[in-house]
Specification:
With about 170 residues, this protein is mainly alpha-helical. It contains seven helices and no strands. Helix 5 (about 125-135) packs across helix 7 (about 155-170) and helix 6 crosses helix 7 (about 155-170).
């Protein structure tokens, strides 16, 4: 019978409790050193001793229990950090996806509004549409539009006002 098997068979739960008490502080300190958080270190410490008890059969030299359980503590704490990092990445990815979906919705709403504006501009009478497109869309001054269309500047301003008013009424 191997030494480790004899150790497991010969040890009862009271002996394991003693080993836990003797090593609890060092395991906690290792976990706290890796994690930097008391609550997480306490959770990891409990996990370490549960794992140690379950794997007691794999301990080759019972005299090396302290070193063995300390390695388990370090690995368990590092795994907790990795797990937390993966969880944070997933949450961040989910948040970015939600932001993108909001952005997509905003873009879709913007495109729908643009489409509605274009449709309403197309419904305007030609006189009003020409003035609106040249002044508001192309950015030309009413005097320039007046020269282009061969009409007085006052008429351009009047038609522009009327076109904007109709457009606003149709889109409201």
């Amino acid at each position: 019978m191997a030494v480790a098997e004899r150790f497991v068979i010969e040890q009862d739960f009271a002996d394991f409790e003693r080993l836990v008490r003797e090593n609890q502080r060092v395991v906690y300190q290792i976990a706290y050193g890796v994690l930097g958080n008391a609550a997480d270190a306490q959770d990891v410490s409990q996990d370490v001793f549960a794992r140690a008890h379950a794997r007691l059969g794999s301990l080759r030299d019972p005299a090396q229990f302290r070193g063995w359980v300390c390695r388990i503590a370090r690995h368990t704490a590092l795994n907790r950090i990795r797990s937390d990092a993966r969880t944070r990445r997933r949450e961040d990815d989910a948040a970015r996806t939600a932001e993108r979906s909001v952005d997509v919705e905003s873009v879709a709403e913007g495109r729908a509004f643009e489409s509605a504006v274009r449709a309403e501009i197309d419904r305007l009478p030609e006189k009003l549409r020409a003035v609106l497109l040249l002044c508001a869309i192309e950015g030309l001054e009413p005097a320039e539009v007046a020269k282009l269309l061969g009409i007085p500047p006052g008429t351009v301003r009047s038609r522009l006002h009327l076109a904007r008013k109709r457009l606003l009424g149709a889109l409201a």
